[in-house]
Write a structure and sequence with these properties.
Layout lengths: L10 E4 L9 E5 L4 E9 L5 E5 L7 E5 L3 E5 L10 E3 L3 E2 L1
Parallel strand pairs: 1-7
Antiparallel strand pairs: 1-6, 2-3, 2-6, 3-4, 4-5, 7-8
């Protein structure tokens, strides 16, 4: 997510019921927590297309239920671990 979020920074992730295009979301894969920007939402299939901001720009299609929450904009560039709902550290 560089340059918005750099490696080693801490982010605050707020749980949410809805995400929208442009949101930066944290989601869990089998082995990793990933942070990407929402590019599109398919209302029929329920798949969310996400993409990092780095120059690699790889698209991923994920199911809504794997999204843990949305990164709070107010903490960009100030942050070193992922904090879910300001209580649980990952």
């Amino acid at each position: 997510m560089s340059p918005v979020i750099r490696g080693g920074q801490e982010i605050v992730v707020k749980s949410c019921k809805q995400v929208k295009i442009g949101d930066i979301v944290c989601y869990k894969t089998k082995d990793w927590f990933l942070v990407h920007r929402v590019k599109s939402i398919d209302k029929t299939s329920g798949l969310v297309t996400v993409e990092g901001d780095s120059k690699d720009r790889v698209l991923h299609k994920i199911k809504k239920h794997v999204i843990m929450g949305v990164v709070q904009e107010s903490v960009y560039r100030k942050i070193i671990k992922i904090i879910i709902d300001s209580k649980t550290r990952i």
